[in-house]
Amino acid sequence: MKKILLVSKVVLGAGIVLLSLNSCKNETKQEDPKEVAEDQNEAKFDTIDSKEDDSEFLVDATEINLAEIEIGKLAQTKSTNPEVKKFGKMLVDEHTKSAAEVKAIADKRNFSLPASITEEGQDEYDKLNEKTGVDFDKKFADMMVDGHEKAIDKFNKAAENATDQEIKTWASNNVTALTAHLQHAKQLKESLDKK
């Protein structure tokens, strides 16, 4: 009986040591800013689905803006092609303006937004940053075509389905600018594909 008691104490002691060691691990994996904002909005508007959907769109719009700004900056510094640099500057300017508009709309409604580029945006940025020369320019143009097609789709859906009239109007008004970016990106891609 004493042996069983002693063995169980040893096992219990070992378990406690393992648990305490495990809790001492200092894992500092930062949570994705998009997930943080979505979780905060979900908690605030759990009972109001329409607000949650509208907040989700503004989180997506912010994610797009933050990624485009960073990728635009990268294009300005890394590309040697004047058209790519010019397109990068336009992205930074227009998406910075768009980000400020989204923030103003979100602040009025107490919506949370990502404060920095998301994990997905950072992954795209890193993939682009690995490229150099013409490969960089072509990858940039491909990303701009693909990214703007996806953005236009999200904005069109919000323009149709948002329940908040200001968000609906804002989304609708921005489809035109995104479509112009897409056309510009397609022209850039076409000229780069000839090289």
Helix and strand topology:
Layout: H1 2-24, H2 33-44, H3 49-78, H4 82-109, H5 119-129, H6 133-161, H7 165-193
Describe this structure in words.
By secondary structure, the chain is mainly alpha-helical. The chain is 83% helix and 0% strand. It is globular and about 50 Å long.
Number of strands: 0
Order of helices and strands: HHHHHHH
On the 0 to 100 scale, the average pLDDT is 84
Overall morphology: globular
Number of helices: 7
The SS-based structural class is: mainly alpha
**What kind of sheet is the major sheet?**
none
Oligomer: single chain
Percent range for β-strand residues: under 5%
Distance between the termini: 84 Å
Quick structural summary:
This protein is mostly helical and 195 residues long. It has helices at residues 2-24, 33-44, 49-78, 82-109, 119-129, 133-161, 165-193.
Descriptive labels:
globular, mainly alpha, 195 residues, single chain
